Amino acid sequence: MNIPRLSCSLLSAFILFSSCDEDAAKYKEPQLSGYVDRFIEQASLHGQDVSADKWTVEFGEVEGNFCGVAEDLKVIISEDCWNKMPESGREALMFHELGHALLGRSHKNERLPNGDFASLMTEDPTMLYSAYTPLKRLYYFEELFNESTSPPVWSLPKTNATVIFKDTIKLDNGWQFKLSGSPNHSQSINSSVFVSPSSSLQITSAGTGSGYSYWTYFIIPENIPEGTPVDVRVKIKTEHLNGDGANIIVRGDVAGDNLPAFVYSTHETTSMVGTDDFVEYGVKYPTSRTSSIDSVSSSYYPAIVRGRFTSMMSK
């Protein structure tokens, strides 16, 4: 009679262990599991004991303009967003959603003294830091698990501006003109219409075609402290510019990475349409540890997918 009891005990143990394995694997979408484990490890390092055993973490549809959501014991990540993000953005997104799910954190859109967002719990955390800003990453992890974390040294306001690059747009210069699609645009260096340099960059459209064109310039940033904001200023003159108008874009690229370290533009904040004399526009962005950024490109272009323009010039 002892043997049947022993067999029954072994069977029960097997069922129990199988059930535990299923619970542990429930949240582990293969591409997301490492981030969950990393979050739990970081929580432990910050003195918090959290568990994701009751949560399902998976790819799925996310309503609105969000890349993730945490509700009803589910963290759902938009796979389309995910595939367009660098590694640092994926980590920040997962930690943000797990902050909702496992820490009970709400959105926090307060700013640091230098203008950066103060928390990973801001509505879009995906560009707060990169692989090249270790001090920023460290701070955002600290604040995630301890809301009373003090602002870091790198976030102190910067009051003394330093010019690191100023282009005089000579006839022989480093600007490159590029086309996307078939916009029927032409370019020139205009030496008769300008503000302070002796010439300006010009794009002219025949009013047909689709797509866009742009001027772009690459620089290698050096000796810019981490956390220091950089302000890119461009003066633009427009003539009969309509449709989506013009934009200024600043993008940081790292050799070997398929995705940029950051992209900032005037698209959501400034409308450049119609006819106007030279007006100065700008894009301000927080820097990374720029010695690790191989190039920063500054571009301006008219988006004419739903419109057309006659000409645009840039100083």
The CATH architecture category of the largest domain equals Sandwich
Radius of gyration: 26 Å
Number of E-type strands: 12
- Total number of helices: 5
Please describe the biggest sheet, giving its number of strands, its sense, and whether it closes into a barrel.
9 strands, antiparallel
| Helix percentage | 10-25%
Percent range for β-strand residues? 25-35%
Mean pLDDT: 78
> Uncertain runs with pLDDT below 50, 5 residues or more?
1-25, 288-295, 298-315
Our count of domains comes out at 2
Distance between the termini: 95 Å
The global form is elongated
Alpha-beta content class: alpha+beta
What is the C-level CATH assignment of the largest domain?
A: Mainly Beta
- CATH superfamily of the largest domain, by name, is Galactose-binding domain-like
The arrangement of helices and strands along the chain is: HHEEEHHHEEEEEEEEE
Predict the CATH topology of the largest domain.
Answer: Jelly Rolls
